[in-house]
Amino acid sequence: MSKKETYEGRTEALLLPIVEQYGVEIYDVEYVKEGRDYYLRVYIDKPEGVNIQDCENVSRALSDALDTEDFIPDAYILEVSSPGLGRVLKKDRHLEKSLGETVELKAYKPIEGHKEFSGILKAFDAGTVTVETDGVSRTFERADIATVRLALDI
């Protein structure tokens, strides 16, 4: 297991009782390096959406727990936020909750001349994602997909 996976997994374990206490759920945890800085990003959610107080409560409690456990030796910036309206659907649990929703899919390289597709998320499995556009279902290999995110209705 990589350092990134270890830090994310241990952070999720610390988060479980915290999110339960504050009535939110873990959407995602990521440990990334951007430039010279490391970021530990925690995305939380709840059906009616999170507010600044939810983020502050989770951030303070998690910061204390991380200080106690002290398993990340690098200096890092902790960020706690909502995944946003146009959230990226990275994990199977994200795709499962979004079945029937309109998504935007971006491919790493052109597929039949296009890199971007949108439609209704119909199905997924370990290797594919199926999106329906104008009544036509199209199945994409996950290896070809750069991102899948919820489409914004503007």
Write a structural description:
- The protein has 154 residues and is an alpha+beta fold.
- It folds into 2 domains: 3-81, 2-Layer Sandwich (GMP Synthetase, Chain A, domain 3); 92-150, Roll (SH3 type barrels).
- The protein contains 3 helices and 8 strands.
- It has a 5-stranded antiparallel sheet with strand order 7-6-5-4-8.
- Strand 5 and strand 6 form a beta hairpin.
- Helix 1 packs across helix 2.
- It is globular.
**Computed Rg:** 17 Å
Q: Fraction of residues in helices?
A: 25-40%
For the secondary structure, the number of strands is: 8
The number of helical elements comes to: 3
Just give the CATH class of the largest domain.
Answer: Alpha Beta
Shape: globular
Find the CATH superfamily of the largest domain. Answer: RimP-like superfamily, N-terminal
Q: Strand-residue fraction? A: 35-45%
Query: What summary fits the major beta sheet?
Result: 5 strands, antiparallel
In the CATH hierarchy, the architecture of the largest domain is 2-Layer Sandwich
**Which series of helices and strands comes N to C?**
HEEHEHEEEEE
Biggest sheet: strand arrangement? 7-6-5-4-8
Terminus-to-terminus distance: 41 Å
> Which blocks of ≥5 consecutive residues have pLDDT under 50?
none
From the helix content, strand content and strand pairing, which structural class follows? alpha+beta
Count of spatially separate domains: 2
- What number is the mean pLDDT? 94
What is CATH's topology name of the largest domain? GMP Synthetase, Chain A, domain 3
